[in-house]
Amino acid sequence: MISEDIRLVMLRCLEEVSDYSLNESVLLSALGAFGHHVSRDRVRTEMDWLAEQNLITIDMISDIRIAVLTARGADAACGRATVSGVKRPGPRG
Questions:
Q1: Is 66 inside any structural domain?
Q2: What CA–CA distance (Å, rounded) separates 53 from 72?
Q3: Parallel, antiparallel, or unpaired: how do β-strands 21-23 and 56-61 relate?
Q4: The total number of structural domains that make up the chain
Q5: Distance between CA 35 and CA 57 in Å, rounded?
Q6: Quick check: is 85 in a domain?
Q7: Please, are residues 27 and 67 in contact by the beta-carbon 8 Å criterion?
Q8: Helix 40-52 vs helix 2-16: angle between axes, to the nearest 10 degrees?
Q9: What digits encode the pLDDT tens for the residues 47-88?
Q10: Which one of 7, 15, 39, 51 is separated from 82 by 20 to 30 angstroms, measured CA to CA?
Q11: pLDDT by residue (tens digit) across 4-33?
């Protein structure tokens, strides 16, 4: 259940920024702000899982990993698609 929520938070954070991309450090901070105090290794593991599910792609700049939201990931973040392993978002508003 916690992993599913972490993944949803990551997708929603990516969906809310103008270029749909965030580096792992920003995702780590964002997760902390939502009550998920996890390690950088955990963020990388979740990024890899999301990439395997085609919800994000991962770009590398030097040794920095950058998550980029896919159309499928945006659909999951907004509740338009259901993905096993990602918490379904509640209604906004």
A1: yes
A2: 9
A3: unpaired
A4: 1
A5: 25
A6: no
A7: yes
A8: 80
A9: 999 999 999 999 999 999 999 999 999 999 999 999 999 999
A10: 39
A11: 999 999 999 999 999 999 999 999 999 999
Report how far apart, in Å, the C-alpha atoms of 77 and of each of 24, 41, 61, 69, 90 are. Answer: 18, 22, 25, 10, 10
3-state helix, strand, coil in the chain (%, to 5): 50, 15, 35
7 is in which domain, residue-wise?
2-78
Residue 36: Cβ within 10 Å count: 18
How many whole angstroms separate alpha carbon 31 and alpha carbon 34?
Answer: 5
Residue showing tokens 């929603």: 12
Q: How far apart are CA 82 and CA 85, in angstroms?
A: 9
Which residues have CB under 8 Å from 69's CB, separation 6+?
11, 14, 15, 20, 21, 55, 56, 77
Nearest-5° Cα angle at 23, 79 to 68: 45
CATH of the domain at 52: 1.10.10.10
86 within a domain of the structure (yes/no): no
